[in-house]
Amino acid sequence: MPLEPAIADVLRMLADSGAPPMSQGTPPEARAAMRFMTVDLRDPAHLAQVGSVEDVTVPGGDGPVPARIYRPATPGPHPTVVFFHGGGFVIGDLDTHDDHTRLICRDVDAVVVSVDYRLAPEIPFPGGYEDCLAATLWAVEHVTELGGDASRVAVAGDSAGGNLSAAVTIGARDRGIRLAAQLLIYPAVDVADTDEHPSRAENAEGFFLTEADMRWFGDHYVPDPTRRSDPYASVLRHPDLTGLPPAVVATAEYDPLRDEGEAFAAALEKAGVPVVARRFDGLIHGFFGLPHVSPAAAEACRVLCADLKALLEPSAG
Q1: Residue 233: which CATH number?
Q2: Residue 159 designated active-site
Q3: pLDDT score at 317
Q4: Domain range for residue 232?
Q5: 35, 72, 224, 248: which has the fewest Cβ within 10 Å?
Q6: pTM over 0.85
Q7: 281 catalytic per annotation
């Protein structure tokens, strides 16, 4: 279907801004640009209201990393969702995704632990993954202090964060820990240089995330091309996806990552994992951060939070 009109307006605004492509700049420049588009331009009135917000540190792969805990305004016990932000493993932080985590906290009625994992190129793969796994294992160990229900610990993330979420479920499984659910929002699950996913060519330009951006991110996250098929970098290529928690996998029609996300949903289903796979037509990569400007994005966010909430209901097991 055509681009949703509000999304088309956003894309025109970005095109008219004259900003250089992210792939032509440096990581610090890209980080500053992302913070400008999210934190600096954000209207606080659009943020979901939650019970409390607390900045903390949690264990990472090589020492403590910053994190932020969001608690609902409702009485517990609550499920706990460990959230990993997107940004191609290179950009993004706790502040750029404050809107995402508040929305999940409120609409899923869950405690959310947002993890500020170390970024590439300063810390390439597997540093970010190791931080996210360590933080999740900490959340499982401290669930009584967090949400209070050990049977309802999930992971969630957008884009690169979807990759990290999926990888963490595998790492947790291999340590004898089965998480309750995973929410993968337009996940980047194949960082290998490949022509296997037609949406990368179909949506290569003009829809916010570009093919050149993805290659730029991959070059920073896994600088050695021979390692890009590592199953914890490209989780779509993991040989064993059995025994993983139920998944909600979201894709967008006009996203270069669409086909690999849908291929991962299919691979999970083939491995016997319960999957809710949703493609949101008319939307682009990044829609989870656009509910205040796009009615279609707002509805997509509502649906995805409802899907995750359903998986985390006590009766869902």
Answers
A1: 3.40.50.1820
A2: yes
A3: 47
A4: 5-316
A5: 224
A6: yes
A7: no
